[in-house]
Structure formats: structure tokens, C-alpha cells
């Protein structure tokens, strides 16, 4: 209880034996009444404000006296109220405890106006910045007119943040009229002075806008953006690094929090309480495209309580599969599945499927299977329509058309030849593959040899030369490297004689794949054939149907559009110059075609590797062919 002090009186108080001398004067102590009376009481019907001297309704107990008589039900002296009258009395008796003019603490209970604001502070001890923009939130409580200023925490800002001004009635500056701030003093875009600190209001929430429109008929201006200082600009640049650092330190922060005696956080408790036993159900299927695969139907359950999912298989009768219907056990379904080789390894941040990711008509990847969602139940449709304002569709699914899959032979495993491995698949008692004995005897000693170079664009391999041999008896290919001084490579065998496949076509190499100018790949090394021996040229020219680049009649037909150009040139011309001449006219000739023209209508020197085309003979051949 506070004791008020009374100023000194010029005379000695009554009952005091002290003389009226300096230092002997006494103060008269008076005890005042400072208690506040209780105005809130409780009675029938709820709480009552006794300050307004409202009369508490009293029960008429005289009516209960008649209930002692067991025959009161048969008393017809008064009319019993009907059901409508009873409902009217019940409804009219409701909320009678609330006063007609509600006080502010009752009318605006838990009504808070929220404004986003910022203030500017000067930085004296920093060489990187001269000022700092500090974003704050101003709360105005309508029930008692109090205010509070809070600054959200920013990581590594170097400033103490949190509650800047505690909740109380804040006085207005004298230059603004004095008094305390009210809700009429706030407007988006204006400034507010709180204890000599200037705050500019830049935004407000929807409830604040609605309150000003209902209470004052005023419309708050549109939200504005707070300015960005150099510190915030640097934070935006390093946003990814800060996010990674925060994720790395989150586990250590939680560990130290628990070690210091803190409680364990239960962040999903509210989600569990609101969504317990609420499950989304989707119908889906997966098309197995393997040899003996078929369409597999599933039911996907998504539990809203903890964001977990389970997938159950819908097996048909006589499916021949084991009765294990759970395809995915209930657990979080990750978009980025990861398998750790050893315990303790760092794992990427899990990204799990959310309800917004499950849409009818799209795919969900589970264990490498693209599962298609084609329908859902009624509860799932209502959930998406109520919470996400999205209408889930429904796709009519027909059974896939049965397609007979031809049994394929197993691939070659590398032992022996492919024909030998295929023979064990064709018969129970394998037979040796048939061989063309006539061809083996007729072409046993016939070989086409080509000179080649590596076409890998490596400067160290430009001077290396090779011999590519094609054995006509069985189409086997062998490669040998020629001796070259200071090349750093030994001469001799580069690739064994064997049948080889052409990587470009996927089939075995044949004789028609080899000609001057062709690029063939042997042992993962590309070889460009730059010349051939006389035996190879004669073999090709004698079989023009098999080697089309050695057929001079086909080459002459390609040169007919350039006849006028050839008539202007006379005499002999080198085969490369001739090839460049017709190429400028839009006619593409490979090296073997040009050399075949030189051999048939010109001069050819095999050992010297020179070939010249006689244009006069070529024109005569073109006339004879017509």
C-alpha cells in the first residue's frame, strides 16, 4: 500500500512532543484507500458486470413445489409450452449476460493491428557500410491501446534483435499534440516517432485493412517495399551458402539444446492433431515393359498426419505372383532417393512428396518405376477442392492390348564365336555352324590391303601409318602398324585377325565397307583409308555390283551436270584437283570414285601413288555411255 507524503506544516502536529526546531519537524502520515473494487462476478447465466448494477435473475422455486406431487403430469389447470415456445425461450435467453455496450477489452479481445515498418541506423564502426536498414513489426492492441515493436532476428547481423519496445501505451511527441498513440495515427506510407526513433510504415496485413474500412471507412494504401542496404545485398548473394551452413549447423544446435536440458521439439504435433486418420487414396498402375512384364495396378495411400505414403499391390486372380501386397512400406516417399554405402556418410537433404505433388494424370517415381495416377476417391477430391482449390480429374483406363513378345536369343557372352553360342540355343545337341567351303577354298589366299591413318585429331598420331587387311575368305579384318622413326610406337600387330562388328551399323564388317576415303573403327580406334594396293583395286573393279564406288559408269552419271564445266578444261588433271573442281559445282565424290576414274580414263602410278584424269577421254566416255 502506497503511503502519501504530506508537506511540512508550520506548527507542531497534535500529540507531538518535539519542539518546532530545524531538524525536529515531523510529517503527518495519512493512510488513503487505493484498492480497486471487484466489478466482475459470476451468477446464473454466466459472468455479470456488477459495476452497472445489473440485476441477477432469480429462479422461481415455487414451481418446483408442484413437482413433489407424482400426479403433477395430469394437472390440466395450466397450458404446457409448445416446442416452438421452448426453443424461442432458449434462444432468447442466450447471450443475455453480454452488455449492450461492450467494453473495449471484450469487444476487441485478441484484435491486433499489424504494421511492417523499418528504421535506419547509422553505422560508425564499420568500413563496409554507413547505415543499416532494420525491418520491424509494430503491433497495436485494440483492447487497451498498447503497442509493441519487435524486430525479426537475422542470422549473423551483429545486432541484438527481438523485442525493441515492450508492450505499453507509447506517448506521442509534444510536437504532434502529446497524449498516446491510437489506431487513428497509423497509415501505410506515414512515419511514426517512438522515443525519438523514426519508423516508416510500409505494409499491413488483411485484418488491419478490413478493420480500418469497417471502423473508419478508410482504405489503407498499397504495400511498399523496404529499401535494401549493402548488408542485405550481400546476404542475398550468399543466400545459398547461408542455407547450406544453417542446414549443417541445425543438428549441432539441436544437440547442444538438448544437452543443456532443453526439451525436444515436436514440430509435427499440430499437423498430427489436425489430420489424424485423414488419408488420401489414389488408384495407379505401372506398365512393366520387360520381356514377360504386364500392367501392375496399385493403391497409393498418403497419410496427412505425418506426410508418409504406402503403396499396395492389387493382384488379380491366378496372377502367379507371391502374396506380398505391400510394394512400398509406409514411410516418407522421397523425390531424391539415396543409398549410403557405409554408416555415417553425409546424405543430401531429403525432398519428399507433398499432397500438391500428387495429381491425377501425372507420374510418381518409386524405386525406379514411373507409376501413373489415374483416379482417386471422394474424400481426396473434397480435400483438394477445399484446401487447395483444385479439382482432381479422373481418367478412364482400358486394358492394354495383348502383344505377343517374340522370344529373343540370349546375348553373346564373349566365349567362342556367336554362331557357336547360337547353336546351343537352337538345338539340345549343338551342331557346329555351317561354313561356306566353296568361298573358303576359292578366296583362301585373297586379301585386300589398305593404307590407313588414325583419324582421332591427335597431333602425336598424325605421322603413324597402318595396314588394314580384309581377308575375303571369311571377311575377317586385321591391322598392322608400319615402322616410323621417332614415333614412340613399336611396329607390328595392332589388331588380331578376326571378324569384327561395325560400331556405326551394329553388323559385321563386310568387304563393301572398305574403300579409299572410308573411316572404319577397329578396337575403338578410327582409321581413315587413304590408299589401296593394285590387287584391292582390281578386286573392286571386277565386282562393280558389290563395290559401287569402283563402278565408273555410276561416277560418270553423277558428273553429267558438270559437263559444260569439264569442257572448258583440257588435258590431264590431278585427281584431288578434279575432286575439288566438281565439289565447287555441288558434286560430292569420295576418294575411291576419283581414283577409279583415273585408273579407267587417265594415268595411274600405283607405287608412286599418283593418279591423273584425262578430261578428253572422260568426255568421250560420257558420250559413249549416252
Automatic annotation (TrEMBL):
<dbReference type="GO" id="GO:0007052">
    <property type="term" value="P:mitotic spindle organization"/>
</dbReference>
<dbReference type="GO" id="GO:0060285">
    <property type="term" value="P:cilium-dependent cell motility"/>
</dbReference>
<feature type="domain" description="DM10">
    <location>
        <begin position="276"/>
        <end position="388"/>
    </location>
</feature>
<dbReference type="InterPro" id="IPR040193">
    <property type="entry name" value="EFHC1/EFHC2/EFHB"/>
</dbReference>
<dbReference type="GO" id="GO:0000281">
    <property type="term" value="P:mitotic cytokinesis"/>
</dbReference>
<protein>
    <submittedName>
        <fullName>DM10 domain-containing protein</fullName>
    </submittedName>
</protein>
<dbReference type="GO" id="GO:0005930">
    <property type="term" value="C:axoneme"/>
</dbReference>
<dbReference type="GO" id="GO:0043014">
    <property type="term" value="F:alpha-tubulin binding"/>
</dbReference>
<keyword id="KW-0677">Repeat</keyword>
<keyword id="KW-0963">Cytoplasm</keyword>
<dbReference type="Pfam" id="PF06565">
    <property type="entry name" value="DM10_dom"/>
</dbReference>
<keyword id="KW-0966">Cell projection</keyword>
<dbReference type="InterPro" id="IPR006602">
    <property type="entry name" value="DM10_dom"/>
</dbReference>
<keyword id="KW-0206">Cytoskeleton</keyword>
<dbReference type="GO" id="GO:0072686">
    <property type="term" value="C:mitotic spindle"/>
</dbReference>
<feature type="domain" description="DM10">
    <location>
        <begin position="444"/>
        <end position="544"/>
    </location>
</feature>
<feature type="domain" description="DM10">
    <location>
        <begin position="109"/>
        <end position="216"/>
    </location>
</feature>
Amino acid at each position: 500500500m502506497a503511503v502519501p507524503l504530506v508537506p511540512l506544516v508550520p506548527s507542531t502536529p497534535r500529540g507531538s512532543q518535539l519542539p518546532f526546531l530545524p531538524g525536529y519537524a515531523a510529517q503527518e502520515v495519512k493512510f488513503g484507500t487505493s484498492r480497486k473494487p471487484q466489478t466482475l462476478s459470476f451468477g446464473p447465466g454466466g459472468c455479470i458486470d456488477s459495476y452497472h448494477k445489473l440485476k441477477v435473475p432469480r429462479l422461481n422455486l415455487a414451481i418446483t413445489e408442484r413437482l413433489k406431487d407424482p400426479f403433477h403430469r395430469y394437472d390440466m389447470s395450466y397450458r404446457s409450452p409448445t416446442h416452438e415456445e421452448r426453443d424461442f425461450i432458449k434462444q432468447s435467453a442466450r447471450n443475455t449476460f453480454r452488455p449492450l455496450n461492450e467494453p473495449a477489452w471484450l469487444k476487441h479481445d485478441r484484435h491486433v493491428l499489424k504494421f511492417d515498418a523499418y528504421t535506419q541506423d547509422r553505422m560508425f564502426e564499420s568500413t563496409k557500410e554507413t547505415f543499416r536498414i532494420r525491418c520491424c513489426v509494430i503491433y497495436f492492441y485494440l483492447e487497451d491501446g498498447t503497442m509493441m515493436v519487435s524486430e525479426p532476428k537475422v542470422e549473423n547481423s551483429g545486432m541484438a534483435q527481438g523485442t525493441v519496445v515492450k508492450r505499453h501505451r507509447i506517448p506521442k511527441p509534444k510536437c504532434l499534440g502529446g497524449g498516446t498513440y491510437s489506431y487513428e495515427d497509423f497509415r501505410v506510407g506515414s512515419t511514426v516517432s517512438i522515443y525519438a526513433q523514426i519508423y516508416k510504415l510500409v505494409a499491413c496485413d488483411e485484418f488491419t485493412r478490413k478493420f480500418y474500412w469497417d471502423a473508419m471507412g478508410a482504405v489503407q494504401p498499397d504495400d511498399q517495399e523496404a529499401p535494401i542496404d549493402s548488408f542485405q545485398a550481400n546476404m542475398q548473394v550468399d543466400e545459398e551458402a547461408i542455407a547450406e551452413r544453417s542446414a549443417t549447423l541445425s543438428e549441432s544446435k539441436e544437440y547442444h539444446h538438448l544437452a543443456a536440458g532443453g526439451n525436444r521439439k515436436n514440430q509435427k504435433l499440430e499437423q498430427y492433431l489436425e489430420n489424424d486418420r485423414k488419408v488420401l487414396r489414389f488408384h495407379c498402375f505401372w506398365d512393366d515393359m520387360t520381356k514377360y512384364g504386364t500392367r501392375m495396378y496399385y493403391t497409393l495411400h498418403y497419410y496427412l498426419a505425418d506426410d508418409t505414403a504406402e503403396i499396395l499391390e492389387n493382384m488379380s486372380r491366378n496372377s502367379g505372383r507371391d502374396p506380398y501386397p505391400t510394394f512400398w512400406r509406409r514411410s516418407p516417399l522421397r523425390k531424391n532417393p539415396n543409398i549410403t554405402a557405409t554408416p555415417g556418410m553425409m546424405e543430401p537433404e531429403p525432398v519428399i512428396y507433398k499432397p500438391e505433388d500428387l495429381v491425377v494424370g501425372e507420374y510418381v517415381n518409386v524405386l525406379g518405376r514411373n507409376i501413373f495416377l489415374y483416379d482417386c476417391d471422394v474424400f481426396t477430391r473434397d480435400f483438394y477442392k477445399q484446401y487447395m482449390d483444385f479439382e482432381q480429374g479422373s481418367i478412364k483406363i482400358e486394358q492394354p492390348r495383348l502383344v505377343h513378345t517374340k522370344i529373343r536369343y540370349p546375348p553373346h557372352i564373349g566365349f567362342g564365336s556367336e554362331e557357336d553360342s547360337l547353336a546351343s540355343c537352337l538345338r539340345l545337341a549343338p551342331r557346329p555352324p555351317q561354313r561356306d567351303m566353296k568361298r573358303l577354298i576359292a578366296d583362301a589366299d585373297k586379301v585386300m590391303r589398305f593404307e590407313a591413318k588414325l583419324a582421332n585429331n591427335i597431333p602425336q598420331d598424325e605421322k603413324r601409318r597402318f595396314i588394314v587387311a580384309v581377308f575375303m575368305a571369311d571377311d575377317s579384318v586385321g591391322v598392322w602398324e608400319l615402322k616410323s622413326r621417332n614415333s614412340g610406337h613399336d611396329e607390328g600387330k595392332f589388331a588380331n585377325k578376326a571378324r569384327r562388328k561395325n560400331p556405326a551399323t551394329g553388323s559385321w564388317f563386310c568387304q563393301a565397307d572398305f574403300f579409299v576415303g572410308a573411316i572404319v573403327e577397329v578396337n575403338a580406334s578410327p582409321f581413315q583409308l587413304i590408299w589401296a594396293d593394285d590387287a584391292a583395286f582390281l578386286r573392286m573393279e571386277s565386282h562393280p555390283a558389290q563395290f559401287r564406288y569402283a563402278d565408273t559408269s555410276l561416277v560418270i552419271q553423277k558428273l553429267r551436270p558438270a559437263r559444260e564445266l569439264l569442257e572448258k578444261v583440257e588435258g590431264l588433271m590431278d585427281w584431288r584437283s578434279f575432286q575439288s573442281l566438281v565439289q565447287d559445282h555441288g558434286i560430292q565424290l569420295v576418294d575411291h570414285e576419283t581414283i577409279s576414274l583415273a585408273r579407267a580414263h587417265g594415268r595411274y602410278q600405283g607405287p608412286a601413288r599418283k593418279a591423273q584424269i584425262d578430261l578428253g577421254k572422260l568426255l568421250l566416255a560420257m558420250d559413249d555411255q549416252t
